[in-house]
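// run 5 | inverse folding | seed 20
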């Protein structure tokens, strides 16, 4: 049985969520020949739905890479989502998505591994982080 990698895109802007999700989907086609794992992509526009899924412990036994928007709405921040993910699963790599460089500078206060500024290069950067995560785990 293949090991599962859960890829989460947590972004409340539907358009931007689709852009990131599609960029990450391209990554799966690139590495399919070498797959020793099952890549499962999840997209969340509503932060509450994401929190429920995390609390259900669905991601607990698998590797997780999460691309999480800092300002999610619903009274839940990206930092809260990342904190819960890492609490539930120590095999989580968290990439914080933000429009502000100020968030990037406060990395010691947050629990994310990388920060991506939402600009024209963000989808490609997210894909590179996913590719690197896969290579580090399985290739």
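// decoded
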């Amino acid at each position: 049985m293949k090991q599962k990698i859960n890829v989460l895109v947590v972004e409340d802007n539907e358009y931007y969520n689709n852009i990131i999700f599609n960029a990450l989907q391209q990554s799966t086609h690139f590495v399919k020949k070498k797959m020793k794992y099952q890549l499962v992509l999840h997209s969340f526009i509503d932060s509450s739905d994401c929190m429920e899924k995390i609390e259900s412990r669905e991601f607990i036994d698998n590797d997780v890479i999460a691309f999480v928007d800092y300002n999610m709405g619903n009274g839940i921040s990206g930092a809260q989502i990342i904190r819960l993910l890492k609490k539930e699963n120590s095999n989580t790599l968290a990439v914080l998505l933000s429009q502000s460089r100020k968030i990037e500078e406060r990395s010691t206060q947050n629990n994310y591994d990388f920060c991506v500024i939402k600009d024209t290069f963000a989808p490609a950067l997210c894909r590179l982080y996913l590719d690197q995560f896969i290579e580090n785990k399985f290739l």
